[in-house]
Amino acid sequence: MEKRDLQQDFQNQFSDVVTRLSSKQLFQSDWDIASFAIFFIFIGMVLLLVILVLIRCCCCCCCDDKPKTRKVGIDNMALEP
């Protein structure tokens, strides 16, 4: 029974998309426009973060001219509060 309902729902969704594409009126309500805008804002933010990570990994790692200092000696854990 659930499989038949799922198939019917899928067919209804598909026919709705086809009718919207054929009528060239993709957005029929304000909710359609809002969900479309939120979806593309989310995709844009994800792409921006990926680009920033790539810039950070590719450009900043090899540009550091500071000598790396290593810690010398041992930690005295008895002095810790």
TrEMBL record:
Domain of life the protein comes from: Eukaryota
Protein localization: Membrane
Residues that span the membrane, as ranges: 33-55
Keyword Ribosomal protein assigned: no
Pfam family, one: SMIM5_18_22
GO CC annotations on file: membrane
GO biological process annotation, one example: regulation of cell population proliferation
Coiled coil: none
Protein name: Small integral membrane protein 22
Name of the encoding gene: SMIM22
